[in-house]
Amino acid sequence: MNDLKDILRQRHGLGLSRDDIAAAIGVSAGTVSNVLRRAEAAGLSCWPLPDDLDDEALRKRLYPQRAGRVGGNVEPDWEALVEEYRAPPGRRRAKLTKRQLWVDYSKEARAQGGTAYSCSRFCALLNERLKGPNAQTDMRFDYAPGLYGMSDFSGKTLALRTAAGEADVEIFVAVLPHSGLTYAEAVPDQKVSHWTMAHRRALEHFGGSPVRWVIDNLKSGVTKADREEPQLNPSFREFAKHYGLAILPAQKYRPQYKAAAESAVKTVQSRILLPLRHETFFSLGEMNAAIRSELDRLNDAPTAKGESRRAAFDAAERAALSPLPADPWDWGDWLRRKVGPNGHVSFKRNHYSVPEGNIGREVEVRVGERMIEVFVEKGGERLAVHRLKTGRHKYATNPDHMPDRLKAVRDIRSPDYGEILIRRARGIGANALAWAERCMASRDFPEQAFATVQGMCRLAETHGNERVDAACAEALNLNRLASGFLRDRLKKGGPAAPARPEAEENIPAHANVRGGSYYARRKGETP
Q: For 352-361, 377-386, 411-420, 425-434, which range has the lowest pLDDT when averaged over its residues?
């Protein structure tokens, strides 16, 4: 009742506008218009009011004989409600909902001392006036648990404060139609990567995947919209295959084909975006944390049926969803590249190796959030996988992809090249290892002996490990610590590889064996 006097006082006493009055008192602008219109009709467009006009008398003047009551309920001003509902919202303002109109109407009914229609009855009566007598018949769908999921972007958004100023982000909405369990999050834009990864997080939020998924015909999901044979975006199709989803694009310009998604979008706009419209966000993480808080409140709140969305989901739909794969899907964009002369493919000015023998070949490259994969063709043999490089002009090279003639060059650039040479010398023999260690110790810096030891290792490739190890033994005795000495000795035929020792024969003593005295007789003597 006090709201009636406050509205008149702020309008005629303070000169405030309709919107300012609605914000100050906490009612809708339609309620303010309705009260001012009734006051004008009753001749009370003034302030202060007559002294003999108390609260009850004011109510009777504005609502004479409570003639608006039908069947015990206060009858709202339907024309004003229809006009307010159809008024176009601003770009950044969420559209007024029927539920919000019902909330305002309920407050007004209580102010009159009467009772209000229930929310469902109020919406039904309002729909009759919105559609008119020639409205088409609506069809209601009952979705089986775990059978359908739907998704769409919200046309309304929130503002993100950045260094360059305010930027609009996109609000992704997904819903399971049977229970109405809803998911929403803010993403930078509608690109295929953000669209697809938002679906992955939605499935993780639901804890499983339904059989079918209905989407709109945006380019991130559908490359060619067709009623009979739509073509899905390759990356999104790959995602759907990973999670076992049958993607069903809705018919163009037929939002009723995904009515549950449209309803969820409106619910998110009114129950999440409207409460957050005055908040200031400086990062997507901060914005999504606020959205998640409001989202939990939405899913836990009782619906018109009396049961919350989460309770309906837990009761019937959670068990009907298919379990998620053990490995979550990683977004990837497919590109076609040609292997360069250096055996690498390029992406964003960084380079990634492929096995030898593929130079000049056309390959398919899949670029994910953290990894890059190279395939012979889509769905074919994978040639290589690397972690994505940051920055520019960097190389990711797998040593196994390099030809043998280039591996030595690669090793020279390695920080532990000295250890690599020592391991090679150890593989040749003990003398070669000792020669290499003494050679490095004899220089002012070990790096100065790398070329010398490398020359010794190359000799083993042509002359064999045993001959080079024997030459190193001679060089150690002579303290000759140059690979040229080893090369000369091997070129001249020596040293030979050590012969294997012959096995000793132990002949047992017996009478037929002549002793040493037999051969010690003087020449000419006969035995």
A: 411-420
Q: H/E element holding 181? A: strand 181-187
Mean of the per-residue pLDDT values of the chain: 83
HSE of 50 in the Cβ direction (CA atoms, 13 Å)?
Answer: 8
Q: Give the C-alpha separation, 203 to 216, whole Å.
A: 18
List C-alpha distances in Å: 94 to 87, 175, 197, 289: 12, 19, 25, 20
For 491, other C-beta atoms within 10 Å of its C-beta total 10
d(CA 425, CA 440): 12
Q: What percent of the chain has pLDDT over 90?
A: 31
Residue 393 and residue 370: Cα distance in Å, rounded?
18
Rounded to whole angstroms, the Cα distance separating 300 from 298 reads: 6
Instruction: Please give the Cα distance from 319 to 300 (Å, whole number).
Output: 19
Beta strands, E only, 233-387: 246-249, 332-338, 344-347, 350-353, 362-368, 371-375, 382-387
Burial category of 191 from C-beta neighbours within 10 Å (exposed 0-12, middle 13-18, buried 19 and up): middle
Asked whether the beta carbons of 322 and 211 are under 8 A apart, the reply is yes
3-state secondary structure of 222: strand
Which H helix or E strand runs over 165? strand 165-168
The CA-CA-CA angle for residues 83, 85, 89, to 5°, reads 110
The two three-digit tokens of residue 201, written as one number: 């997080």
CB atoms within 10 A of CB 158: 23
Find the farthest-apart pair of alpha carbons in the chain and give their distance in angstroms, rounded: 172
* Tens digit of each residue's pLDDT (9 = 90 or more) over 138-160: 667 788 999 999 999 988 888 88
Residues forming beta bridges with residue 332, ordered by sequence position: 368
**Chain segment 93-109, per-residue pLDDT in tens:** 667 888 888 888 888 88
Name the token pair of 465.
Answer: 């490990």
CA atoms within 13 A on the CB side of 382: 6
Three-state DSSP class for residue 430: helix
| Cα gap 93→464, rounded to integer Å | 83
Measured at the alpha carbon of residue 70, what is the angle toward residues 68 and 71, in degrees to the nearest 5? 150
466 sits in which H/E element: helix 465-478
Residue-by-residue DSSP string for 118-161: -HHHHHHHHHHHHH-TTPPPP----PPTTTEEEEEEESS--EEE
Neighbours of 174 (CB within 10 A): 24
Q: Please give the single-letter amino acid code of residue 159.
A: A
525-to-513, 518, 519, 520, 522 alpha-carbon distances in Å: 20, 11, 11, 10, 6
Cα angle 11, 12, 17; round to 5? 30
Residue type, 353: S
Regarding beta strands 212-215 and 222-224, do their DSSP bridges make them parallel or antiparallel, or are they unpaired? unpaired
Report helix angle 465-478 to 430-441, nearest 10: 50
| CA 259/CA 239 separation, integer angstroms | 24
Residue 385 forms beta bridges with which residues? 373
